[in-house]
Design goal:
The chain is an alpha/beta fold. Among the domains are: 3-128, Methylthiotransferase, N-terminal domain (Rossmann fold, 3-Layer(aba) Sandwich), CATH 3.40.50; 147-258, Transcription Regulator spoIIAA, CATH 3.30.750; 383-440, Nucleic acid-binding proteins (OB fold (Dihydrolipoamide Acetyltransferase, E2P), Beta Barrel). It is built from 13 helices and 19 strands. Strands 2-1-3-4-5-6 form a 6-stranded parallel beta sheet, with helices on both faces. Strands 15-16-17-19-18 form a 5-stranded mixed beta barrel. A 3-stranded parallel beta sheet has the order 7-10-11, sandwiched between helices. β10 (197-201), α8 and β11 (232-236) form a beta-alpha-beta unit. The protein is globular, with a radius of gyration of 23 Å. The N and C termini lie far apart (54 Å). It binds S-adenosyl-L-homocysteine, iron/sulfur cluster (SF4) and FE3-S4 cluster. The site of S-adenosyl-L-homocysteine has 16 residues, from β13. Iron/sulfur cluster (SF4) is lined by residues 159, 161-163, 166, 168-169, 203-204, 239.
């Protein structure tokens, strides 16, 4: 085969961990179809963008990329748009970017081999756009994980919750869980291949419903944590309405389950939560937090918050600030509300102006920074286990992550050369609002 006949691809991924992991599966599928991955657009015959449309900014990124590289179509390059923007915009993408030959949403990735044959044959406007009818998950034995120690497993796809602001139910299809046997088989294979950390993924991971009827989500967590060789099990994202005390009990009873829960609240005001159609109120959310705080282990809690949802008053926003004080999160991802296509909130009156949104976001982040400063200080003097991720050569510090998912920069005796994936014990000697400092215990 000459170089020009060789099939090469370049892929860029935007968005959440589900997208990152989907890309690992797409890469595996392409490799299996005889493609070779390259790291620059210039070298590639096929350019794929795995896209995100959670907020408008994320969506615009892909159209900027497509505009930037339009001229390369003349060199015979083909372009494919995958993921959430693909599913959301569908064939409209061909009108906006006529050099795109494939548009494929995540519910259709299992058809990728067939779709690739079509674009290789020179077909234009090829689509894989299954709608919410799909019951199947995308499972493949060809997943090309790019980290040999820590890997994702998707256990549930899609979403049926339809929060008033969110595109996911439209872009990811209906909620469907993988059966527990297939999840455990994949986890065992990963353990045999040397993985020590597994992260279970789902838009609402704890809404998991085993089609075999054998395991609850908490039991599945426990079963993955029981696999010989597995030292850490994480899961994200949990939806408060499906968060049961059994999850906390599982974490308490099994050291391999990491002491971290990501539990997006979105707002501290019951009125706003109601308008968002979040299915819980402030008190119900705080009840879940109380379960987590009552655990024997020190479980870190992180969350997502949207400011400026239509109708959010200053009093509502104050409720969100007060929730930060009550819960004392270890981390908050905060966003300005972004109006999204197809969602009910698009029609809501009382939009919050951009200036108020910016002010509220800044106030929230400033408050949370102070809270985190204290939250991270509480670890001073503790010993924590980290999985080594790499080294900051300039500072001479190793970088690792604790079970609580906190970044820990630490020094080790110069004679010791650590390798990524190794677990070591570190004494915490300092902290910042987003990271810890320490010294390896030898
Ligand atoms: N399924 C998860 C969240 C997934 S989306 C849950 O229900 O908690 C990730 C985060 O993006 C959300 O928690 C929310 O904070 C944010 N987000 C979603 N839609 C948004 C929008 N239209 N504008 C701003 N932020 C949004
Ligand atoms: Fe979006 Fe709500 Fe579903 Fe989360 S639960 S993915 S925020 S619709
Ligand atoms: Fe984005 Fe789709 Fe994930 S919209 S956040 S890539 S589910």
């Amino acid at each position: 085969m000459t170089v020009s006949e060789e099939k090469t691809f370049y892929i860029e991924t935007f968005g959440c961990q589900m997208n990152v992991h989907d890309s690992e599966k797409v890469i595996g599928t392409l490799l299996c179809q005889g493609y070779r991955q390259v790291l620059t657009i210039e070298e590639a015959g096929l350019v794929l963008y795995n896209t995100c449309s959670i907020r408008d900014k994320a969506e615009q990124k892909v159209f900027h990329r497509l505009a930037d590289y339009k001229k390369l179509e003349r060199q015979g390059k083909k372009f494919a748009v995958l993921g959430c923007v693909a599913q959301q915009e569908g064939e409209k993408i061909f009108d906006r970017a006529p050099h795109v030959s494939l548009v494929c949403g995540s519910a259709s990735y299992r058809n990728l081999p067939k779709l690739l044959v079509q674009i290789e044959a020179g077909n234009k406007r090829v689509t894989g756009l299954d709608d919410r009818q799909t019951d199947e998950c995308f499972e493949t034995e060809f997943t090309a994980r790019n980290n040999p120690h820590r890997g994702y497993i998707t256990i549930i796809e899609g979403c049926d919750k339809f929060c008033a602001y969110c595109v996911v139910p439209f872009t990811r299809g209906k909620e469907r869980s993988r059966n527990s046997n297939s999840v455990l088989l994949e986890a065992r294979r990963m353990a045999e291949a040397g993985y020590t950390e597994i992260q279970l993924l789902g838009q609402n991971v704890n809404s998991y419903h085993d089609p075999l009827g054998e395991k609850t989500f908490a039991e599945l967590l426990g079963a993955v944590g029981d696999i010989p060789g597995i030292k850490r099990v994480r899961f994200t994202t949990s939806h408060p309405i499906d968060f049961g005390a059994d999850i906390v009990a599982a974490i308490d009873s099994q050291a391999t389950l990491c002491d971290h829960v990501h539990l997006p609240v979105q707002s501290g005001s019951t009125q706003v939560l109601d308008a968002m159609q979040r299915l819980y109120d402030r008190d119900q959310y705080l009840a879940r937090i109380a379960w987590i705080k009552a655990a024997r282990r020190d479980i870190s809690i992180t969350t997502d918050i949207i400011v400026g949802f239509p109708g959010e008053t200053e009093a509502d926003f104050e409720q969100t600030l007060s929730l930060l004080d009550v819960v004392e999160f270890d981390g908050v991802f905060s966003f300005k509300y972004s109006p999204r296509p197809n969602t009910p909130a698009l029609e809501y009156a009382d939009a919050v102006c951009e200036a108020d949104m910016s002010r509220r976001l800044a106030a929230l982040q400033e408050k949370q920074r102070e809270i985190q400063r204290r939250r991270y200080q509480r670890h001073h003097g503790q010993r924590m286990e980290v999985m080594v991720e790499g080294k900051n050569q300039a500072r001479g510090q190793w970088i690792g992550r604790t079970s609580q998912n906190k970044v820990l920069n630490f020094t080790a005796p110069s004679a010791i050369e650590l390798l990524p994936g190794k677990y070591v014990s570190v004494l915490i000697t300092g902290s910042f609002p987003n990271s810890l400092l320490g010294e390896m215990v030898v």
